[in-house]
Amino acid sequence: MEVDLPKVPLEAGLGPENPPCPICGEPIFPWLELPGEGGLAHRCEECGLGILGPEGNRAAVLADLESGDTGDGWIAYENRDSTQARLTGAGWAGLETEHPFRFTPDAIERLLASGDRLVTERRADLGSSIPGMWQSVINTFTFGHNVALGAFGSSRCVRAPRIWMRALDWFITAVLAVPVLILSVPLELIGTATGRCGRYSIRTTGP
């Protein structure tokens, strides 16, 4: 016989080790070990915000989002709720940018709503998302992180600590490049069709 256990609210976990999310106020919890010496990342179980450093406050999160302004009225961001992020975990290529926060569509809508703003348009950036999926999968086999995208200046690279590891990373990348690309295209297309593209751009309205 199944027993219905009482549900424990997320806020019950608030404490020094699990401070409140700067967007929704629910506690943040450990998420994953960042590549290299990046330390421990956290995430909010309620809105999905990923936090790679200090939790900050709403103003810091909003400033980070707006720093993704592409100059043509669109704001680009790496989607922490994407298929590639879910599949590859710590191998996700989207971890390697200068942004301290990783957004989900829900986190962005909550963040903007608190300032009476709305998302008016959203588009999938497949041109960036397919390489991101490709690199994310390869990252799961290499010592370093974003070896190929980093070499082309498309992302920050975390290099392996030893020369032989770096050489092996390039060998693995070369061997896996084509088969992983063949796999990555349909995976990212499926992710996009289900609302889990790796990178989105949005337009917003309001004050």
Keywords, separated by commas or semicolons:
207 residues, alpha+beta, 6 helices, 36% helix
Topology:
Layout: E1 28-33, E2 40-44, E3 50-51, H1 58-66, E4 75-78, H2 83-88, E5 101-102, H3 105-113, E6 118-124, H4 126-139, H5 147-151, H6 163-193, E7 199-205
Antiparallel strand pairs: 1-2, 2-3, 3-5, 4-7, 6-7
Q: What can you see in these coordinates?
A:
With 207 residues, the protein is an alpha+beta fold. The protein has one domain (10-205). Helices cover 36% and strands 16% of the residues. The protein has six helices and seven strands, in the order βββαβαβαβαααβ. It has helices at 58-66, 83-88, 105-113, 126-139, 147-151, 163-193; strands spanning 28-33, 40-44, 50-51, 75-78, 101-102, 118-124, 199-205. The strands form two sheets. A four-stranded antiparallel beta sheet has the order 1-2-3-5. Strand 1 (28-33) and strand 2 (40-44) form a beta hairpin. Helix 4 crosses helix 6. The longest helix is centred in the last third of the chain and has 31 residues, at 163-193. The radius of gyration is 18 Å and the shape is globular. The chain starts with 27 loop residues before the first strand and ends with a strand.
